[in-house]
Design goal:
2 domains; Aminobenzoyl-glutamate utilization protein B; disordered N terminus; about 35% helix; Bact_exopeptidase_dim_dom; about 20% strand; 16 strands; Aminopeptidase; 6-stranded mixed β-sheet; Peptidase_M20/M20A_hydrolases; 4-stranded antiparallel β-sheet; Alpha-Beta Plaits; dipeptidase activity; Aminobenzoyl-glu_utiliz_pB
Length: about 475
């Protein structure tokens, strides 16, 4: 990469004097290169821990140790969440927050190999790449801290340790607690099978565990005395499945039966089903949700059971900020894509050969995808952050092209060098984006204006999970 000198005006606190400091862009990027082994070690350690939402004690502590060693002050256990934290460095100037996630997905397991190979006794894995998310965001925060210190630029960099993104809405509680109220801009990223800074929004969503209760009895000897809680769950699912034909096109509804009994000859007196409802607009989620609740009541009435439910999480859609997204796209293009080693190429070819008509071709990891504004069908609690402060994100090819999130293939790549290379690229892109925001007042003004316009003059924040406390045991 060519050597580009950044000559940065450093404002004295009095506002009467200016000093000049120079720091090459290449030197900042080289500092990230120089910490690659640290990045890979952090990513691999968290990958091996595979701690699920709100149980990420060791992962959270590792990240805090790394940041503390680099001069960050740490606030632990924020927003009533033991594994959430805020790390900060700097004074005065704009406040930029970088988000980090580190929770694993339950119910999926895979070694870092190119063939299906579960690890015995392991019940979770980083199939969404949050181990990479954590490592890359921490390294970006460390690089920005180095830049702030060496250039004496007024500004604060914050690393937000945000647990339980997968169905726990950790960031929502942090937003609700006011932890983003003084943040000027937020930056995030995500593991993916491509390199892109497209302005991709997400679906709003809400989830709940619906719990049916009945009367148990011998299924053959006294069925008339029983009322099956599982019948309630199945009747409920049937009603919702019929409802799918009569909801807006971009809606999504999915569920798993988390408890349905233990023996066929015992009519279960308890059964539980875990539901997600998604829609591009929070009001759309609310409208569908009310129908789902009515279906639950009807199923209980029809089966002679009772039902109650606990809302587990809820996320607003991602509010894109085009001025910031276009800036991030330019930084990603400046950096370029990813080149595989011979060993990585062999791994990727084995993985890719197992895909049926993959969206992205092998080799596209070296490219940057076209910029556009699009709807993504996933959901994230970054959405609530994006309504609190202007927010920008980037995705990098941490997985073999064609890989879907939440798959054994994504888990495999998240635990080896393909994942680590993509993570380093994300750290560099976020670092350059943060520097641009610190040094470009016109961009800051344009991004803030776009944010204010998108929210509207009468905007009032509303959480889709209500006033409940964090569900710290939702994965137990």
């Amino acid at each position: 990469m060519k050597k580009l000198a950044l000559v940065l005006p450093i404002l004295a606190l009095s506002g009467t004097a200016q000093a000049q400091a120079t720091l090459s862009e290449s030197d900042i990027l080289a500092s990230i290169d120089g910490r690659y082994e640290q990045l890979a070690d952090t990513a691999r350690t968290i990958w091996e821990l595979a701690e699920v939402g709100y149980q990420e004690e060791k992962s959270s502590e590792l990240l805090k140790q790394n940041l503390r060693a680099q001069g960050f002050s740490i606030k632990s256990g924020v927003a009533g969440i033991p594994t959430a934290f805020v790390a900060e460095y700097g004074t005065d100037g704009p406040v930029i927050g970088i988000l980090a996630e580190y929770d694993a997905l339950p119910g999926i397991n895979q070694d870092a190999l190119a063939v299906r190979s579960p690890i015995a006794g392991k019940n979770a894995s980083h199939a969404c790449g949050h181990n990479l998310f954590a490592a890359g965001s921490v390294e970006a925060a460390i690089a920005v801290r180095k830049w702030l210190k060496e250039t004496r630029t007024p500004g604060r960099i914050r690393l937000y340790g945000t647990p339980a993104e997968e169905g726990g809405s950790g960031k929502v509680y942090m937003v609700r607690e006011g932890l983003f109220d003084d943040v000027d801009f937020a930056i995030h990223w995500h593991a993916a099978d491509e390199n892109s800074a497209a302005a991709r929004t997400t679906l709003a969503n809400r989830s709940a565990k619906f719990r049916f209760r009945g009367v148990s009895a011998h299924a053959a000897g006294a069925p008339d005395r029983a009322r099956s809680a599982l019948d309630g769950v199945e009747a409920f699912n049937m009603m919702v499945n019929m409802m799918r034909e009569h909801v807006p096109q971009d809606s999504r509804i999915h569920y798993v039966i988390t408890e349905g009994g233990t023996a066929p000859n015992v009519v279960p007196d308890f059964a539980e089903v875990f539901y997600y409802v998604r829609h591009p607009d929070p009001d759309g989620v609310e409208a569908i949700w009310s129908r789902v609740e009515e279906a639950a009541r009807g199923a209980a009435l029809g089966t002679g059971t009772t039902v109650d439910w606990e809302v587990i999480h809820g996320n607003n859609p991602l509010l894109v900020n085009e001025p910031m997204a276009r800036m991030m796209d330019s930084k990603l293009r400046q950096l370029g894509g990813i080149t595989y080693s011979a060993e990585e190429q062999k791994f990727a070819e084995t993985i890719h050969a197992g895909f049926d008509k993959p969206k992205n071709a092998l080799g596209s990891q070296a490219m940057i995808q076209p910029y556009d504004v699009t709807l993504g069908y996933g959901s994230t609690d970054v959405g609530d952050v994006s309504f609190a402060t202007p927010t920008v994100g980037v995705r990098t090819a941490t997985w073999v092209p064609g890989t879907s999130a939440h798959s054994w293939q994504s888990s495999a790549a998240s635990g080896m060098s393909i994942g680590f290379k993509g993570t380093e690229l994300a750290a560099k892109a976020m670092t350059l984006a943060a520097i641009e925001l610190y040094t470009n007042p016109d961009l800051r003004s344009e991004a803030r204006a776009a944010f204010d316009e998108a929210r509207g003059p009468d905007y009032v924040y509303k959480s889709l999970l209500g006033d409940r406390k964090p569900p710290l045991n939702y994965r137990k």
